[in-house]
Design goal:
The chain is of the alpha+beta class and 179 residues long. It has helices at 3-31, 34-40, 56-66, 168-172, and strands at residues 41-48, 53-54, 71-85, 88-102, 108-124, 127-145. A hairpin with a 2-residue loop joins strand 3 (71-85) and strand 4.
Length: 179
Amino acid sequence: MDQALADALQALLDKQAVTETLLGYCRAVDRRDAELMRKVYWPEAIDDHAVFKGDVEAFITYSFPFLEGVVTAHGISNIWVDLTGPDTAFSECYFQGFHDFPAEGGGRLERVVGGRYLDLHEKRGGEWRIIARTLAIDWYNERSGNSVWDSGRYAHLENRGAPKPRDPLYRLHPWGLEV
């Protein structure tokens, strides 16, 4: 294989690894999987997350309890990765985060937030992780929710999304709880 082809292949592999890190964040936050969240960020990374700014441990401590009783679904698209050096990258990707909260006084509140994750990544020992994240909120929508999780049609589903370890991912994935 000539050098140009080898370099192009390495660039594709690096961009895919950065993309999987971004996807890992979505899985980690929706499943409240602290171990996976720690694999997304380097320990000294800083996340500037609109209403929070700090390192990964502080982010877990802040966000996971905040999301107790909240149904979430985070998705990303329009992923753009610029390899800025052999071991550094910058990425921009669009996100949408759906949040179904218990409302004050009863009922539910739905908040959908859209924007972009602007991330600096570093590769260490062949592994890509986020070293700095800035969340840019481009839009949001709040409305009264009508989900009824404790009764009704979907109250007793075996395969309902949930935090780790109750989510079916941890039962069905061949690697089990080590995902």
